[in-house]
């Protein structure tokens, strides 16, 4: 069974940092995409960042404009885990954060980076982890 376990959320003051983890099981990190989404109070779910690899080595990373320069997505193949390092957090980052996976990586994403901003492109989802940023 494919499972995704998101963790690392919490309460932090504005300007602080958190690192979210998405531990995956049931597939290997050699041809996949993993995305982070968030849903704030009264808001729609939005894509935050996604990482894809078609060979387990070369990684493609993308970020929504609002988090560029503050968030970094990375992966540890040995641990089958994707991380989202979030720095300089702002109150508007408050949301439930979800990770999602699709494998194999869709080759459409090579020429259409927006492909994986669509939640419908992911087959597997983890439970959410709450991030609350106080002002």
Structural write-up:
- A hairpin with a 6-residue loop joins strand 4 (about 30-40) and strand 5.
- The mean pLDDT is about 95.
- The chain has strands at about 5, 10-15, 20-25, 30-40, 45-55, 60-65, 70-75, 80-85, 95-100, 125, 130-135.
- Helices cover about 0% and strands about 50% of the residues.
- It has no helices and 11 strands.
- With about 140 residues, the chain is an all-beta fold.
Low-confidence spans: pLDDT under 50, at least 5 residues? none
H/E topology pattern: EEEEEEEEEEE
Mean model confidence by pLDDT: 95
Describe the biggest sheet? 7 strands, mixed
Shape: globular
What's the total count of β strands? Answer: 11
Total helix count? Answer: 0
Task: Please supply descriptive tags for the structure shown above.
135 residues; mainly beta; seven-stranded mixed beta sheet; four-stranded antiparallel beta sheet; 0% helix
Task: List the topology elements.
Elements: E1 3-7, E2 10-13, E3 18-25, E4 32-39, E5 46-53, E6 60-63, E7 71-76, E8 81-86, E9 95-102, E10 124-125, E11 129-134
Could you give a short description of this structure?
The protein is an all-beta fold and 135 residues long.
């Amino acid at each position: 069974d494919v499972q995704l376990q998101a963790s690392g959320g919490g309460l932090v003051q504005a300007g602080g940092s958190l690192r979210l983890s998405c531990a995956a099981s049931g597939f290997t990190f050699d041809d996949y995409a993993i995305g982070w989404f968030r849903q704030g109070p009264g808001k729609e779910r939005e894509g935050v960042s996604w990482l894809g690899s078609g060979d387990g080595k070369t990684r493609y990373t993308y970020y929504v404009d609002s988090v560029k320069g503050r968030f970094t997505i990375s992966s540890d193949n040995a641990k089958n885990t994707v991380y989202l390092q979030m720095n300089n957090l702002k109150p508007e980052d408050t949301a439930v954060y979800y990770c999602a996976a699709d494998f194999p990586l869709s080759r459409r994403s090579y020429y259409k980076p927006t492909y994986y901003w669509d939640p419908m492109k992911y087959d597997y989802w983890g439970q959410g982890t709450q991030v609350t940023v106080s002002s």
